[in-house]
């Protein structure tokens, strides 16, 4: 079958398929939803959990010096003072006076840079991004507005240049802790999971007798009051992060930064994202805590966008927590230096890897969404077998003559090894299609020959080829293909 004439996948294709087949639903949809908040359906939660599990194994199982924690969402308010979020966690916003719509100033300029790239003018794009980075870094917001007007960037709705001044908006959600209003205190929903790792640095190091270099991994929810939330689950107000902070000796940060940069790209390729849809993007404007930063970007239907960031955070976080808490955040290194003496106490530097679970889900889903044309048109999700929500579906040819009972027996025998379902509703061709649409890699057909010789037909999702094998060989054959080890071996 040829895919050459298949229509280009749009974001709307992805959104529609995700809802119709139980992957992602708008939150509170019966009340017309809540902007930039989504729920994962029965198939979506399986895919997302599989992505989280393989990330967790890749971090904590493949590395002897990385362990995991699960820190609380609520943290002492001074945590966010030390991290810089209270004073500096802002987005530059601009309003169009005619449409009354609000935009992120940096995204308007980035969009213009993409237009230059598409027009074959990469130098113009690079110059624009560099200028924007310098202005934002220097907090010259009035000049950012002037740059938007100079580049003739109009509001997509009003088509005018009638812009307000650029203002900074803090993105943290605040709430109260305490049973009585007058006794309550303001705290924040965490805007990132990293600080839960930093404040537990010494707890983990001492209790686990960890030696630098070592890492702490965490998967958890974070919350940001995005003013301009868009592009489905790519940018949400409630999202999930998979982060690892790697603590190292000062002076070794660039070596480890490059190591993790390579390691994380291998991970994305191992789960099935193609090399030609992945690229590095070095930051033009560094965050206040970083001395080097790069994004791994994936080519979504709406262009290349970040799915993971690798940052050299220096000793910014631990140093600030030490100063504000008055508790030493130092590591005693017993190794000998060049003079033969113990290196002694120091605050470790940190290299961070931070991937958005929701963005990784969206990249995986977009990449898997396949529309074939030719003799027979077909839509299916080409997911890595280890990531598929359901690994195998057992389908009796008909529901009579004992075939249904035999198929149910086979399904029950496989359930303890991998996610297996039984389906006898409708013609078998339609059942194959249903499984294709949710990405099930293997369909097991039970027919009259099965009753005679205990063999079944396995249909492969991607090729639609079929092979006859013994029931006794199913668990080993399918179990091998759908195991997480197949991904971990490729990293």
Automatic annotation (TrEMBL):
EC number: 6.1.1.14
InterPro entries to which the protein is assigned, alphabetical: aa-tRNA-synt_IIb, aa-tRNA-synth_II, aa-tRNA-synth_II/BPL/LPL, Anticodon-bd, Anticodon-bd_dom_sf, Gly-tRNA_synthase/POLG2, Gly_tRNA_ligase_bac, GlyRS-like_core
GO biological process, one term: diadenosine tetraphosphate biosynthetic process
Keywords attached to this entry: Aminoacyl-tRNA synthetase, ATP-binding, Cytoplasm, Ligase, Nucleotide-binding, Protein biosynthesis
Domain spans labelled Aminoacyl-transfer RNA synthetases class-II family profile: 137-389
GO cellular component: cytoplasm; extracellular exosome; microvesicle
Pfam families assigned to the protein according to its UniProt record, in alphabetical order: HGTP_anticodon (PF03129), tRNA-synt_2b (PF00587)
Keyword Cell cycle: no
Cellular localization per UniProt: Cytoplasm
GO molecular function: ATP binding; bis(5'-nucleosyl)-tetraphosphatase (asymmetrical) activity; glycine-tRNA ligase activity
CDD domains: GlyRS-like_core, GlyRS_anticodon
Catalytic activity: tRNA(Gly) + glycine + ATP = glycyl-tRNA(Gly) + AMP + diphosphate
Binding site residues for ATP: 224-226, 234-239, 306-307, 356-359
Residues that coordinate or bind substrate: 104, 192, 239-243, 352-356
NCBIfam families in the record: glyS_dimeric, PRK04173.1
Main function: Catalyzes the attachment of glycine to tRNA(Gly).
UniProt similarity note: Belongs to the class-II aminoacyl-tRNA synthetase family.
Subunit note: Homodimer.
Protein name as it appears in the record: Glycine--tRNA ligase
Annotated gene: glyQS
């Amino acid at each position: 079958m040829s895919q050459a004439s298949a229509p280009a996948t749009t974001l709307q294709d992805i959104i529609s398929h995700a809802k119709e087949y139980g992957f992602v639903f708008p939150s509170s949809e019966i009340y017309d939803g809540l902007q930039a908040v989504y729920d994962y359906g029965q198939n979506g939660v399986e895919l997302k959990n599989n992505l989280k599990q393989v990330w967790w194994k890749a971090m904590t199982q493949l590395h002897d010096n990385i362990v995991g924690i699960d820190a609380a969402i609520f943290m002492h308010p001074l945590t966010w003072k030390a991290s810089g979020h209270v004073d500096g966690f802002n987005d530059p916003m601009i309003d169009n006076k005619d449409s009354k719509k609000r935009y992120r100033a940096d995204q308007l300029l980035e969009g213009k840079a993409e237009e230059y790239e598409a027009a074959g003018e990469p130098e113009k794009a690079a110059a624009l991004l560099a200028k924007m980075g310098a202005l934002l870094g220097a907090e010259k917001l009035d000049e950012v507005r002037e740059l938007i007007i100079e580049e003739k960037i109009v509001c997509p709705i009003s088509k005018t240049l009638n812009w307000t001044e650029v203002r900074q908006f803090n993105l943290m959600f605040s709430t109260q802790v305490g049973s009585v209003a007058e006794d309550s205190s303001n705290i924040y929903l965490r805007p990132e999971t990293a600080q839960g790792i930093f404040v537990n640095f010494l707890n983990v190091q001492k209790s686990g007798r960890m030696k630098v270099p070592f890492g702490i991994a965490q998967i958890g929810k974070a919350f940001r009051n995005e003013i301009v939330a868009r592009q489905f689950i790519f940018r949400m107000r409630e999202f999930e992060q998979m982060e690892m902070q790697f603590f190292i000796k000062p002076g070794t940060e660039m070596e480890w930064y490059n190591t993790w940069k390579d390691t994380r790209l291998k991970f994305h390729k191992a789960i099935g994202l193609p090399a030609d849809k992945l690229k590095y993007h070095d930051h033009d404007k560094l965050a206040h805590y970083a001395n080097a930063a790069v994004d791994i970007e994936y080519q979504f239907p709406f262009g290349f966008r970040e799915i993971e960031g690798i940052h050299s955070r220096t000793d910014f976080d631990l140093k600030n927590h030490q100063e504000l808490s008055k508790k030493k955040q130092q590591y005693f290194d017993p190794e000998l230096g060049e003079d033969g003496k113990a290196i002694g106490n120091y605050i470790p530097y940190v290299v961070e890897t931070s991937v958005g679970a929701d963005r990784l889900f969206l990249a995986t889903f977009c990449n898997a969404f396949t529309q074939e044309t030719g003799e027979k048109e077909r839509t299916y999700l080409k997911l890595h077998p280890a990531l598929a929500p359901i690994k195998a579906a057992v389908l009796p040819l008909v529901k009579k003559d004992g075939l249904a009972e035999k198929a149910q027996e086979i399904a029950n025998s496989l359930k303890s090894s991998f996610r297996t379902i039984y389906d006898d509703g409708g013609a078998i061709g339609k059942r194959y299609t249903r499984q294709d649409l949710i990405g099930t890699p293997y369909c097991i057909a039970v027919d009259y020959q099965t009753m005679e010789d205990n063999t079944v037909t396995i249909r492969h999702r991607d090729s639609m080829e079929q092979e006859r094998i013994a029931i006794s060989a199913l668990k080993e054959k399918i179990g091998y293909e759908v195991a997480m080890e197949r991904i971990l071996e490729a990293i």
